[in-house]
Write a structure and sequence with these properties.
InterPro entries: AhpC/TSA, Thioredoxin-like_sf, Thioredoxin_domain, Thioredoxin_ResA/DsbE_sf. With 140 residues, this protein is of the alpha/beta class. It has 4 helices and 7 strands; from the N terminus they run βββαβαβαββα. It has helices at 39-53, 77-83, 97-101, 129-139, and strands at residues 10-12, 18-20, 28-34, 60-66, 90-92, 109-113, 119-123.
Length: 140
């Protein structure tokens, strides 16, 4: 079965840099979409922080994407990240552009992309993070 190619994007980071998905070719990539007001995201993000701290960045890339178009006040994203002590990289969606391009329906949702840029799976809050980690292990 042919997997769908992940939509290309370039987004600003919370630190003011930019990142393009094409720059990550050759690595498996996990993108995690979230918003500050979401209770499920507040449970999910600490797990993602522990995961991020254990990564081998040579073979795998992990980025969170804040869906600014679903935030009541996008200026609260940076204080939220600092308040919770998150160190994972945060990309800022341009409204809902990337969220919609990846056909995301809810937050939190994670998207796993293989080293060739093809989507392996989309995982909403119903999928245990341990399952996603197992799929990643099989991929890399």
């Amino acid at each position: 079965m042919q997997k769908e190619l992940a939509p290309e994007f370039t987004l600003p980071t919370l630190t003011g840099d930019t990142l393009s998905l094409r720059d990550l070719r050759g690595k498996a990539v996990l993108l995690s979409f979230w918003v500050t007001w979401c209770p499920s995201c507040q449970v999910d993000l600490p797990q993602k922080e522990r995961f991020f701290r254990s990564l081998d960045a040579d073979h795998f890339a992990f980025y969170t994407i804040n869906v600014t178009g679903r935030e009541a006040d996008p200026s609260q994203v940076e204080p939220f990240v600092h308040e919770h002590g998150f160190h994972f990289p945060v990309l800022l969606d341009q409204g809902r552009t990337v969220y919609d391009a990846f056909q995301i329906q809810s937050v939190p949702t994670s998207v796993l992309i293989d080293p060739n840029g093809r989507i392996v799976g989309r995982y909403d809050e119903q999928v245990p993070f341990l399952h996603i980690v197992e799929v990643i292990g099989n991929l890399i």
